[in-house]
Amino acid sequence: MNIVILDGYSANPGDLSWQALEEMGSVTVYERTKPGDTVPRAKDADIVLTNKVIIGRQEMELLPKLRYVGLLSTGYNAVDIAAAHERGIIVSNVPAYSTEGVAQMVFAHLLNVTNRTDYYARENRLGRWSNNQDFCYWDMPLPELAGKTFGIVGLGNIGMRVAQIALAFGMKVKALTSKAPETLQPGIVKADLPELLATSDVLSLHCPLTDDTHHFINTDTLRQMKPTAILINTGRGPLVDDAAVARALHEGRLAAFCADVLTKEPPGADNPLLAEPNAFITPHIAWASTEARARLLQVATDNVRAFLSGKPQNVV
Fold first, then answer.
1. pLDDT tens-digit series, residues 58-108
2. How far apart, in whole angstroms, are the C-alpha atoms of residue 206 and residue 265?
3. Which of the following is catalytic: 67, 214, 247, 284?
4. Rounded Cα gap, residues 121 and 153, in angstroms
5. What number of helices (H) and strands (E) belong to the chain?
6. Angle, nearest 10°, between helix axes 99-115 and 157-168?
7. 109 part of the active site
8. Each residue of 13-54: pLDDT tens digit?
């Protein structure tokens, strides 16, 4: 069995092992693959694993041996699912492996905004506290989370975990969700979009990227939010119109934007968010804890094993 991994570096830059896959066949690992190299590298593969490298209809037509595509991710927009189904190619993803890491990143961002830990640490390295005439100093408000309203768009695995943590902080949690109100955990209140936008002190995005949710946050929805609100996106970059958010920040219509994902990754140097002091951007790392990546590789390997046994799992 010939297994080709097209972009293995992000999931496993060398601190984990591909050994379990190597026990099932001949494994070739490429750290990164440019679009023009996809077909030449995968031409003899029965199984391809990919994270961001596109396996579209055109690639499939040129890969007659391909029987299985294993995603090293939860999202599956890198693969043309319809074309795969037409050709009898099984596609599996890895659900829920990064729930804890992403939820943790949401609150790392939120606490950095409310408590400005990075800002004060940098100031103190420059000697500000050492030269201060009082035992303490602060030059911006330090709000408490308790009692504030935390809005969530999407209550899947990650959204639900975020809700639980927000409740532990003593926050009021409202959610835009398809789930019935009676099925929600105590403390989570179902809300429609206008209410969520108007009342949230913090709004965190955890919905899938679809035609309906593309640029879900835009000029119109931003105008419906509190100017003191904090917007957090650890879901999918295109849920947010980057330019609209940058304008809202620049004009004081949004207090802060925290994101681990952007529409284009890596972003262009001209992305307006990168110039906004109240935009806090991390480089798509919420999923990348050692524990989460170990789970990712384990499930991806289990998916291959299940496929080879004739009982594929996590099929999309």
1. 999 999 999 999 999 998 989 999 999 999 999 999 999 999 999 999 999
2. 18
3. 284
4. 32
5. 11, 12
6. 40
7. no
8. 999 999 999 999 999 999 999 999 999 999 999 999 999 999
Could you confirm whether 265 is annotated as catalytic?
Answer: yes
300 touches 94 (CB < 8 A): yes
- The reply to whether 284 belongs to the active site is yes
Neighbours of 142 (CB within 10 A): 8
Structure tokens at 82: 């319809």
CA distance 130 to 77: 51
Exactly one of 236, 276, 293, 295 is catalytic; which is it?
A: 236
H/E/C letters for each residue in 187-238?
CEEECCHHHHHHHCCEEEECCCCCCCCCCCECHHHHHCCCCCCEEEECCCHH
**pLDDT for 176-191, tens place per residue?**
999 999 999 999 999 9
pTM, to two decimals: 0.93
Phi, psi of 268 (to 5 degrees): -70, 155
What letter does residue 129 receive in the DSSP assignment? T
Give pLDDT, residue 296: 98
